[in-house]
Every structure is written in C-alpha cells, then in structure tokens.
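re: ur question from earlier - yeah i can do the single chain one, its not a big deal. heres the input i used so u can compare w yours
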Amino acid sequence: LQLSYRLRGGGGDGGSTGAESRSCYLEMYLGKKADKVNPEEERLAKWTRCHLSGEPLTPPCVVDDIGNLYNKDAVIQRLLDKSIPQALSHITGLKSVLELKLHPAKKSASATFQPSNDSDFCCPVTGVAFNGRYKFVVLRPSGHVVSEKALKEVPAVVEELAGKKVSELEITPVNPTGEQLEQLRARIAARLAEKAGSKKDKKRSAAATAAVVLPNAAVNGGADARRSGSPPLADDAAAAAAGTAAVNKRLKIPAGATKEVYASIFSSNKAGAAEKETFCCRALSARGMNLT
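and the output i got, formated as tokens:
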C-alpha cells in the first residue's frame, strides 16, 4: 500500500522565495558604496606628512598659526609660484610660519611596524610618539615641540628646554580640532583685520601730511621769490651756469677750440670745397648729380 499526500504551498513550507531570484541577488550589489578612509591612516598622514605637498615630514619643518605642519621647501616653492591655497591665505611669507625643532625617535628592532604606530619624531621629555595618539604643542618662539603630558607633569623640564617660563611662552597646539581650531582661526582673522586697519590709517595720515606740506611749500616759495625780487627759476638757472663753468674749468679747454675745429677731426671735407668722388659715387658728378 502506497500513500501520497498533496501539499499545498502558502508559506513556511520550504517553497521558493524571491531571494532565490538572480535579479534580486544582483540588485543587492548594484548600488556602489562610497570608499571609506581608514581613520587611523588619515590620522597618521595628518601628523607625519606635509599639509601642502603630502610628502613625509623632513626637517627643516615649519608650523603655521593654526598648527598645520609643512616641509619648509614646499612652503617656499608655493610662495615662489604664488600657488598657496585660499584656505591657507594667512601664509604670506616665511614670517607667517615658525621653524620647528623636532626630536628624532629611536626605533628598535622589536618595535611594531604597523602604520598607525610608525613615527619619525617623539617628545624630547616624555618620549611619546609624534603620531597623533597624543596631543602635542609648539613652544614659541623657540620652536620646540613637546607633548601636553610633559607640559602638565614636568613644566620645569619644559622651561629648561625652551629657556623661558611657561607663562612667558606662546603655546600653539599641533593639528587642533573643533572649538580649539575655530578659536585659532578667529584670532588670525582679528589680527589680519587689525593689520589692514593700521595700513589704512597710515595712508590717511600720509595723505593729510602731504595736503598740509604742499600748500606751505608753495607759500614759502612765493615769499622767498618776492624777497629776492626774482622768479624762483632764477636760482636754478644760476646753479646750472655755475655747474657748467666748473666743468669747463676742470676740463681746461684750450683757446680757439670751436665746433668747427672738433668737426674737422671727423670729416676731411671743408665747407665750400669741391666734393671728391669716391668709388661708389664715381662719375655721378659728371652727370650733374649731387648726393648732398
């Protein structure tokens, strides 16, 4: 005896679903996803590469007023080419950046060589790596780069390194973010506005001074002319004549040296004398032609 059951589909019975369709499977991967940058790699590049050229930081290195790091050669090249990006327009010359004193890191053979840990520089006080995992600051005007940890824990050592007290140093954070970065940008904008205002004030004062000096000079010149009884140009003519006399006296021009005498040095023909034929003008005078 053989029994058979008729099973009706309707869900949950192991029948086929839409996921088994090849078109549905391909649509899952149809939309392209944006490439994501590894945040660790991005952080390391920001701390170990030039902000302008993207090349590895190689001394001499410099920092601007908002804590960006550069190779000095790259900054000079961009300044010569006048190709500084608009976002870095506060860099107008080498006076806008400060040369850094970076402490080289000692690499051991047993160290890990992961890109996120690799760094050529470190803090000269605490020895922490200059790779973005720790916060660093720049001490102005000496240019030393130390970690915030050293600044908080051993300020006496930092003062000995910089040659000044911490209260007398201007501290710039390296690669700041968020509110700290906005404060630095606002400080730069205020300084540039103040500089532009001082230039305008200087121009106005110079124009006002010129407006006062020129009328006074004209009045004084007229008064001097009236007192002397001669026009103002008379003094200039007298000075020119005196200069000419001094030159003639120094050169000791002999008596009888006239223009005609000097002209005879460069020409053998005399005025009124018959012109001599030359090779190029031969027989022209015979035909009544005169080249002069």
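Strands lie at 61-63, 69-71, 98-99, 103-104, 121-122, 136-140, 144-147, 170-173. not sure if urs matches, ping me
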